[in-house]
Amino acid sequence: MRVIGIIAEFNPFHKGHEYLIQRAREEVNDPRAIVMAVMSGPFVQRGTPSILPKNIRAKQALMCGADVVIELPFTFACAPSERFAAGAVETLYRTGVVTDIAFGIDSEDPDLIRLIAETDPADDVVRKCLSDGMSYPAARAEGIVSKVMSEGTVDPSRETALRNALRQPNSILAADYLRAIRDIGADTRFKVHMVPRKEGYSATSSREIYLAHDSVSSLCDPISDLIPDKALAVMLSGLSCRKYSFPDTDLFASDLINDVRRFDLSSIAYMSDGLDGFISNTFASLREQDYKNLRRSLQTKHFTMPRIGRALSSLAVGQKEDYIKEEKHPRFIRILGFNREGRYCLKIMGKCARLPILSNCSDAKEHYASDPALKEQFLLDINAQEVQGRYLSIIPGSQWSDSPIQTK
Predict the structure, then answer these.
(1) How many domains does one find in the chain?
(2) Same domain membership, residue 148 and residue 11
């Protein structure tokens, strides 16, 4: 049985995701290969709540080609690319059934991505760039370029292509996936498939359209070109039935402002390097407390918006800096949904997975006494969903009765 692991946020599920699933099966030359997606939950890698509930996004994926959807815990989902990649790859590895892994790249040159993955940045260049006020991702990119060019690993004429690849988020993530596969020793198990992205489909564009509307009737036409029909139907049905609402971003901003003013930020994850003081000072001087003004006020060359977002999301959820320094591994596999073929895969996974498999919240409670690390990681996920649910008008506590989505 071929099981292809893919890593995604589906925020929201769009035609580019559908294309990746299709191409993944083509890459292994098996139209019946199982596709298992590990997906971010209530918060995403760039440090914001996802615009749709995780069960809706999981159902979108299942309706459009995936067979199993599992959740990436909050501590890895809302994290820098290295941590995000490490958590996602290890989660797939610990299922015991994944044979292949497929992911999208922005470059047409997979060898360039492999080169980035194999190159450690020049430390002296990174330090200098940071002292000059560069963000860490930009400094890291400069360190990699310097190392590659000084070692003569590539022809000088390809420096521009290398720099362009290092500016593309999907290519950076792809390189981090390759590093994570190597670091946990999965390179002998996983066959890697790098799929160049198809032009014209963007999660950012889909989100911008979605967030610009506040009614089902006005949303349908502008977003239909980007989202597969079945995924769009799932989204619109959930909104129409009032299972959730359009995100209340201003409420999110207001809650963040209150949290910043109430709590000591120094112990919160990702608040190091003076970010805690920058956020406190910025929030203290805010006159308008809407979301757009909040983001505008936080723009700075010293910290990227994703870094700021991850710090603020950690504050909202209660994730501390000590925790992310100590916790490096996923502690469970949370099942979000599956179809008929996926059910068979899960039966096999139940025999070979090397982490506890959780289908609902009560499953986690059975491990609390024997596995404190699982409990702590799971409770962060619970907090994250309650925080996100507040902005999507989801009934508090309803996640405790949720079961995995099942489709035909």
Answers:
(1) 2
(2) no
Element spanning 13, H or E: none
In a domain, 298, yes or no: no
Query: Rounded CA gap, 114 and 107, in Å?
Result: 11
Q: What is d(CA 43, CA 22) in angstroms, rounded to the nearest whole number?
A: 26
- Domain holding 73, by residue range, is 3-106+173-208+329-406
Calculate the dihedral angle through the C-alpha atoms of 257, 263, 267, 268, rounding to the nearest 10 degrees. -30
Q: Do 17 and 140 sit in the same domain of this protein? A: no
CA 197-60-403 angle, to 5 degrees, is 135
Cis omega (within 30 of 0) for bond into 12: yes
Q: Which single residue is written with the structure tokens 């970010």?
A: 275
pTM: 0.95
- Residues 189, 96, single domain; the answer is yes
pLDDT in tens, the chain (408 residues): 999 999 999 999 999 999 999 999 999 999 999 999 999 999 999 999 999 999 999 999 999 999 999 999 999 999 999 999 999 999 999 999 999 999 999 877 888 899 999 998 999 999 998 888 888 888 889 999 998 888 877 788 788 888 888 888 888 899 999 999 999 999 899 999 999 887 767 888 999 999 998 889 899 889 999 999 999 999 999 999 999 999 999 999 999 999 999 999 999 999 999 999 999 999 988 877 889 899 999 999 889 999 999 999 999 999 999 999 999 999 999 999 999 999 999 999 999 999 999 999 999 999 999 999 999 999 999 999 999 999 999 999 999 989 999 998
